[in-house]
Amino acid sequence: MNAATVNHQWRIAAFPQGEVRDGDLRWSESPVPEISENQILVRNIYLSLDPTNRLWASGEETYLPPLKLGDVMRGSTLGVVEKTRHPRFREGDVVMGAQGWQVYAVSDGSDVSRLPRDNRLPLKAYMGVIGSIGLTAYFGLLDVGRPKAGETVLISAAAGAVGSLVGQIAKIQGCRVVGIAGSEEKCRWIVDTLGFDAAINYRSGDLAQAISRSCPSGVDVYFDNVGGDILDAAMGALNLYGRIVVCGLISQYNAASPQHTFSNLTHFLIKRVRMEAFIVLDYLARAHEAYAPLTQWLQEGRIQYRVDIMKGLENAPAALAKLFDGSNQGKQLLLISDEP
Amino acid sequence: MNAATVNHQWRIAAFPQGEVRDGDLRWSESPVPEISENQILVRNIYLSLDPTNRLWASGEETYLPPLKLGDVMRGSTLGVVEKTRHPRFREGDVVMGAQGWQVYAVSDGSDVSRLPRDNRLPLKAYMGVIGSIGLTAYFGLLDVGRPKAGETVLISAAAGAVGSLVGQIAKIQGCRVVGIAGSEEKCRWIVDTLGFDAAINYRSGDLAQAISRSCPSGVDVYFDNVGGDILDAAMGALNLYGRIVVCGLISQYNAASPQHTFSNLTHFLIKRVRMEAFIVLDYLARAHEAYAPLTQWLQEGRIQYRVDIMKGLENAPAALAKLFDGSNQGKQLLLISDEP
Lengths: 340, 340
Fold this sequence. Notes:
6-stranded parallel beta sheet; homodimer; alpha/beta
């Protein structure tokens, strides 16, 4: 089989215990599938790597149906229509969906959305700001966290794809914004380039003290991507009627028995805190509310993003691992095949 | 000094470490105070004992100003006006307030509320259903938990003053109601007398399994009075968009370093749970919204309560301790002096 007739996939070989290891995912090869009437053949260009992928690989019931052994690993993708026997799609259309960790996928069109044909934004923007990352940041902050101008917003994984966007949206809302990140470089980036008011490197020194210093008026909204000790420390700094937005819990996704120990729950009670989780899927029907302002802010240069692109589907497990050791610099993507 | 001229108080001698011990509170004697123009002398009849008293004794900032060493211990009271030089009060008026752990107190009227003079309910009702207990149960369940008819409501400390009322209000709303309590007698009482659908004795067997068995459709609202392991187990049973009402955390109030360990926080995220704390003080302005239906339900026999009355101010520390070993049977009161 030559390149044009061979498809590759990563399939679930064993449900990972702890971090994903060699052998949990199996590299497989198959012919490029044929399409039938009312189907399209999509060649994936970008694969999005997100912390929640670790939950998807677990084989357990999550907010999506569990994967079975042998299934192609689930993943959000952007691709191009290479062949079409579907009236709604033309060759060359760019589509977003969750076509998984594979080069070619067949779709009946129900599980993908087509980008506007007159679109002027770079394709990778749709894997970030104008995609599920943007919806996550926008609705998580504004609909769940509900910050008011002048309030202090604290964000964990603040140099990550979601966190960096949350902070910039909070600045646009007139908030004081403090980010927690895992390196001096990330801290500098969110302050110097993105305009955060302060940054905390959680790897250096006492976190609770650092939060007190950086948030002299306390914390009104804590946007959490990590859970664990950082969540506990942030909880202790919350003001009256403070809010915790639970967006992700990456610190515990690899744990065999995830445990979060809270020493500040009495403070939670005394301050009448609200802690609320959300999943971006709940907001897909309202996506247009977010895309209009996000697109405008992007075009005006009021929000910035960076993507960390690794190449080659064979490197998908390595790209995922970067999220968990924090070595990614911005939104982690994998370039599966060339842009049209 | 004879009885009519002597006042007694319990004062803070040392901030308790762990459970309240002999020596933390000091029994003191002083003359019955004289009153000035625009003051009343209140003789306390009932003292309410509540888990939150332990927080008040801590000397730390809570939702109320911290007590200082030497202060009279704070406590909710119901008393009778024995002397008045205040135009709004007559001798014999019954007043509610927080006059503390003492027999006599002087007030300028701003920190007490007068019961209606034509009141027909027994006085002890105002230390329970038609008082802060009633407001706590009513607003905590309906305003924070927001149960819908047909949903399952799970309650910890369900035979306690607040929990037993929450369950009965939830039944009136058409919910399935399951209570967690600490003895077989309490479990029988909430099912046989109060009409709960099921009860779980947390001292016998695996709690998570018991919750699954008693809540076959999962839990929609968990009303928490205890925190700790029971909160964690309940969290794991929550349905999509489940709600946790954080009313109290009695399991950790005596702990020197309170810790709550959660193994079910990923479930919290996946199910988009909302966990929200409240304090009854936030609802005092809306008390009339609750008192009208509560009074009606009480008069119709649709809600029942029981009080556990210990006698004599000297026994106040012992009455408080009963809340923490679970030996109280319903709302714990202390009879300080005779009803008029």
